[in-house]
Every structure is written in structure tokens, then in C-alpha cells.
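Comment thread on ticket #2218

A.B. wrote:
> Attaching the input chain for the structure job we discussed in standup.
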Amino acid sequence: QVQLVESGGGLVQAGGSLRLSCAASGRTFSSYASYAMGWFRQAPGKEREFVAAISRSGENTIYVDSVKGRSTISRDNAKNTVYLQMNSLKPEDTAVYYCVAGRNPYSLSVGTSIDYWGQGTQVTVSS
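C.D. wrote:
> Ran it. Output below, let me know if you need it in another format.
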């Protein structure tokens, strides 16, 4: 069974920062480095949306325009972990953030070829 476990969410004031982490594990998750990784989010009353994705090697990244310049996705293949550093947080960043694993960053960015989802971590930004 594959598990993607997110952590690092919480309550922060506008303008603050958070770093989300997602650790992958599981006997069938044979090679973490063979998956592109990414983040989605879902705000109350809204559809789930793509946030960021990173290629297997970490060389290529994609971001939704609303977080571009404020967020950085990175990965540590030795630790089977992907990170999302979010700076200059805004109240509209409030959402449950989900980690995903899939085929490639572009597919993740359009919501296709997603093999695994995490359970989510809550991020709340107060004004």
C-alpha cells in the first residue's frame, strides 16, 4: 500500500511563510524517483486546483500563476520527500493542500495521470 503523508500545514498570518512536506512510503512505491510529484489545493466551496509540480529529477517545475514567485517546490529523492515552500501567504491561499504522485509535471498540472493522492494538510492564512 502506498502512502503520501503531508505535514507542515497550520495557521499563519498574511505575509508569513510555511513549508509543506510530503513523505512517500509503501512497499509498492518501489521507486520514488520514478514519479513526478506535485501539490493540489482545495479551498472551501471551490474545486480542487493544481498548485505546483516537479519532475523526477527535480530539474523541471510548473506553478499555477497565483503562487508563481511566492512558492518553490523541491524534492529530496534520498528521503522520498517533496516540499512546497510558500512565502508571502495570502488569505486566498487558505485551503487543504494535497500531495500527488504521477507521470510527469505537465500531466499533473492538468490533473491527469495522477497515481496517488495524500490525505491533505490544512493551511489557514489569517488577514
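A.B. wrote:
> Thanks. Noting for the ticket: The two ends are 40 Å apart (CA to CA).
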